[in-house]
């Protein structure tokens, strides 16, 4: 299902916005505004991209349809059509990437040649690990590790899908942009060609091949994950190395234009790894942290290991999505790129770097720190020998919190070009910290635990009882009865997921506001400034502050849940602050959408008013379902 959703989302957007862009205006050479540039300058390449992209889209829809049909019938027979459609989907996606990511046949063929190279490396790992595995007994280990294997496959698949998503988009829309019509000498390049290929050819090639390696490795991982035998023989590790280090190299090459900045960017990841290793080393020196377990300590250790795995799941999810966000934002920074040389700037360079150099540096290093910290965390969280002591000594939590604050700093620096607005955003950051401190104080207050106990007692008293005075739904054999502590944990995971998705949407939207950005300086307009700010300032302010409030509320939810996750379940914080922050988050997100998606207040008002019929419909379903449950209980 995830592979189908990935293919459908990628190919749908790529089909509507093909590589090379669109013609902006009609000219006398037969070019019509809105038509794909690539179709006119290289028709064969465009046709290869178009049909490969369309085949991948249709195959993805077929995968989703087959899975939905099997889910409705409760049967999973005849898996051959599904596997065939998935293989066709991935191969067509690779073909579309090779055709659309570059304009030279030689480099496109090299992209396709990466696939057999990756397969050779994976095969080498397969045979080497196979010899080592044949010398050990695997009967008990296979039974004991099946649950851990399923968890690993789930998160590795998520990592591969998101890596393929960002690599595919970055390949079709490379950093630096593409040449626009009539703004470049015809002798050196053509319209629709990557600007970075002309201005910095070596840097572009480094970005291109690293990004292509990550794309191919992600597709190979998706195929390997369908075979449990390959996963157990450690054939996955080789592809994961390329999948993790490919985006790092592509980010270092594509996010900046000078060698020193690229070196500093890579050094950030090394600094995170060194810090975690040193922290773990000092933690393991404590005699209390080691030793053999005896008696009843084994059961307690098993409980702690289960909590460690839950913490690892949340941290890995956060790190993967943070890396996805910052990778896209780093390659296409706020303000866009210069489209032509002149007035002291060069084509393909970030506009923000020339107009506001200090603000750009703040955004660049904060975003790079968050990206490299996230990638380093992913590497650590995939190795049990590293993440277990790292979670116990809170080293990984420190890195995640540092990455989150870097993300906030990048948003404050890149979402607005005015100092006053950035100060207001930082005030919202202070409010986030104050909220976390306040909830921590509430947790430590004795009255809070009493209130929690009263709420639980009131909940028990509201349950219907039978003739013996026992709650009807408290039968331990009742499958509908939630396990102790499982309901709050499930709600916390749900809030974490919604908070992460809301932060993802608002972060990228804040850096690329609706209405676009001015491309050149002229009159009162400065290049890189939001167009909406100059033509409808009040609407832009409504969008900006609503979007910023939603982003900060999402970060608040994530910070509170991370703080709650560190504690044991019996000493966990209540969920009402998270519910309050999430309500504010959703209302602010609705306000940002209403302000940014339209240009007149009547349409924005209608968008907000749509909330009430939706809530009424949900309430109607709720009461109808509740009445049916009460009737079933009465019978």
Automatic annotation (TrEMBL):
Residues 477-486 have a biased composition (Basic and acidic residues). The chain crosses the membrane at residues 48-72, 78-99, 111-128, 206-224, 266-285, 314-331, 362-382, 394-413, 419-439, 491-510, 542-563, 575-595, 607-624. Residues 465-476 have a biased composition (Polar residues). Residues 1-101, 147-257, 307-417, 491-599 form the PGG domain. Keywords: Membrane, Transmembrane, Transmembrane helix. GO terms for cellular component: membrane. It comes from the Eukaryota. InterPro entries: PGG_dom. Residues 465-486 are annotated as: Disordered. PANTHER family: CASKIN, OS11G0682000 PROTEIN. This is PGG domain-containing protein. It comes from Paspalum vaginatum.
């Amino acid at each position: 299902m995830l592979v189908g959703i990935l293919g459908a989302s990628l190919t749908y957007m790529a089909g509507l916005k093909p590589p090379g862009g669109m013609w902006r205006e009609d000219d006398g050479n037969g070019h019509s505004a809105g038509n794909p540039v690539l179709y006119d300058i290289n028709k064969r390449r465009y046709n290869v991209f178009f049909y490969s992209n369309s085949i991948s889209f249709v195959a993805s829809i077929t995968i989703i349809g087959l899975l939905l049909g099997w889910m409705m019938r409760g049967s999973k027979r005849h898996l051959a059509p599904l596997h065939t459609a998935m293989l066709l989907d991935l191969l067509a996606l690779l073909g579309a990437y090779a055709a659309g990511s570059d304009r030279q046949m030689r480099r496109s063929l090299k992209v396709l040649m990466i696939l057999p190279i990756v397969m050779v490396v994976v095969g080498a790992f397969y045979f080497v690990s196979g010899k080592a595995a044949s010398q050990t007994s695997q009967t008990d280990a296979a039974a004991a590790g099946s649950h851990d294997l399923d968890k690993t496959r789930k998160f590795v698949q998520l990592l591969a899908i998101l890596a393929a998503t960002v690599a595919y988009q970055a390949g079709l829309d490379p950093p630096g942009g593409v040449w626009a019509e009539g703004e470049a000498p015809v002798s050196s390049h053509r319209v629709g060609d990557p600007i970075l290929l002309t201005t910095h050819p070596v840097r572009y090639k480094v970005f291109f091949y690293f990004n292509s390696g990550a794309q191919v490795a992600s597709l190979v991982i998706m195929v390997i994950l369908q075979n449990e035998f390959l996963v157990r023989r450690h054939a996955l590790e080789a592809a994961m190395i390329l999948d993790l280090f490919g985006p790092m190299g592509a980010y270092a090459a594509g996010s900046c234009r000078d060698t020193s900045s690229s070196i500093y960017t890579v050094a950030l990841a090394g600094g995170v790894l060194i810090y975690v290793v040193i922290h773990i080393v000092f933690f393991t020196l404590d005699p209390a942290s080691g030793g053999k377990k005896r008696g009843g300590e084994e059961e307690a250790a098993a409980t702690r290991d289960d909590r460690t795995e839950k913490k690892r799941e949340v941290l890995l999810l956060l790190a993967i999505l943070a890396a996805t966000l910052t990778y896209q934002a780093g390659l296409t920074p706020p303000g866009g790129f210069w489209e032509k040389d002149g007035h002291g700037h060069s084509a393909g360079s970030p506009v923000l770097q020339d107009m506001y150099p200090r603000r750009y540096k703040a955004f660049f290093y904060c975003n790079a720190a968050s990206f490299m910290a996230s990638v380093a965390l992913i590497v650590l969280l995939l190795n049990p020998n590293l993440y277990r002591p790292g979670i116990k000594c809170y080293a990984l939590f420190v890195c995640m919190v540092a990455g989150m604050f870097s993300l906030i700093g990048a948003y404050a620096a890149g979402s607005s070009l005015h100092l006053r607005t950035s100060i207001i955003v930082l005030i919202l950051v202070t409010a986030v910290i104050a909220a976390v401190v306040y909830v921590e104080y509430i947790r430590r207050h004795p009255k809070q635990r009493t209130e929690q106990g009263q709420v639980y007692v009131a909940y028990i008293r509201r349950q219907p009882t039978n003739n013996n005075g026992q709650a009807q739904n408290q039968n331990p054999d009742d499958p509908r009865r939630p396990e102790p502590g499982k309901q709050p944990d499930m709600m916390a995971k749900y809030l974490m997921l919604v908070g992460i998705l809301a932060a993802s949407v608002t972060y990228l939207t804040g850096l690329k506001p609706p209405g676009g950005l001015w491309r050149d300086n002229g009159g009162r307009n400065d290049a890189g400034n939001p167009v909406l700010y100059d033509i409808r300032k009040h609407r832009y302010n409504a969008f900006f502050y609503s979007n910023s409030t939603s982003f900060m509320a999402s970060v608040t939810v994530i910070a509170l849940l991370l703080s709650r996750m560190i504690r044991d379940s019996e000493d966990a914080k209540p969920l009402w602050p998270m519910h309050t922050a999430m309500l504010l988050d959703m209302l602010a997100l609705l306000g940002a959408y209403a302000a940014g998606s339209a240009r007149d207040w009547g349409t924005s008002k209608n968008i907000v008013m749509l909330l009430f019929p939706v809530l009424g419909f949900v309430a109607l379903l709720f009461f109808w379902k509740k009445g049916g449950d009460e009737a079933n209980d009465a019978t």
